Amino acid sequence: MQKKAKKQIQVQLDATLATEVAAILSEIGLTPASAITIFYKRIVAEQGLPFELGRTTQQTIDAGLQQVIETTPIHDLDRDPNWEKALFSE
Fold this sequence. Notes:
This protein has 4 helices and no strands. With 90 residues, the chain is an all-alpha fold. It has a single domain, classed as Orthogonal Bundle (Arc Repressor Mutant). It holds the Pfam family RelB.
């Protein structure tokens, strides 16, 4: 059986990220090179990324909260005697 030609790729990653990923991969018996090979094979099989890109749930929540903060008028709580009741009402 003839060996397939190999191509070396190099990437620069955040050192902490690379260390964390290497530890996780080691726990499941993979090397970074084998994980990248699996990733590339999935890209070919699916003709695209093997996952959907989008915001995480936390990013969506943060964006919604930021919008509320930016669009909700702030009342002067010092002057409203019921501010505690409004804040803690269910």
